[in-house]
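User: Working on a comparison across species. This one is Annexin from Brachionus calyciflorus. Can you predict its structure so I can line it up against the others?
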Amino acid sequence: METDKQRCEKEQALMEKVALSFQTAMKGIGTDENRIIREVIAYNNKQRQMIKSKYLVLTGNELTDDLKSEISGHFLEAVLALFTPLDEFEASILHEAFIGLGSNEQKIIEIICSKSAEEIRKLKSAYYRLYRVELESELKGEEGGDLGRLFRALASGSRNENHGYDKGFIEQETQNLYDAGEGKFGTDENVFIRALSVRSFAELNAIFALYKEMFEKDFEEAISSEFSDDLMDALLTTVKCVKSKPSYFAELINKRLMERKNFEQDLLQILIRRCDIDLPEIIGEYKKKYARSLRDVVEKEIDGDLKKLLLALLKKY
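Assistant: Here's the predicted structure for Annexin from Brachionus calyciflorus:
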């Protein structure tokens, strides 16, 4: 029976072999893109960090620098993303959303509104490590009004993480949400922002179920009738991710497909962000909701080496 030390030594030797395989793929005239795809897809994110370290030791070069000199476009973007720790990759997407004229609120919503408290803490740490500015300060400078308050409340990482709940509290909170929205003229946005940013996933799922039972309407319908524009999208994203992240990301892929703007980048970002988390479930949800496979989407909508990489990623699951 193998000891832990033996397993570790075997994995280290394998990572060295893979690192040298990347060097072979980029040696001489031309680049072996198929080898790059095969090697980068075969391992998880933790192992790819080991491969990067081995490459630097064995060749004296940063693997990402050599890749940048050999490949380009969305294919390069996808390969580099796969070699980036998830929290740093998502931090870079947020940073890109902040720069330029105006913010890309949809990208901010996709990331900030889909996180648990622990995931938010990791994201904030990565953002500060990369850009030397607190994520909450960045949000404060970019987003005002109710949407900004929601973003900052979620980014505070103060959501309860308990798995149980008090029935009396759930009943009162459900009534409070009704009274703040459908039960009055106008809407008290702060009540919704507080509940959706502070209550635990267990509490919120209980609230959503009781809201439908008491008022005969899905909570998502209530939000759609009370809010509009980006604030509505942010609140709905939060609710959907509390209920089922695979279902949310399947819907997001289809939404981006229908919009047709930057779909290649949107798709690669979503698939790579979720590949070590719940990609098999997203694949299943997409097929169930839209009666077509994600492989079919990639076959018809994506070209070149990016297409081959994404197909290989989907085939893995």
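For your comparison, note: Residues 20 and 58 are 8 Å apart (CA to CA).

User: Helpful, thanks.
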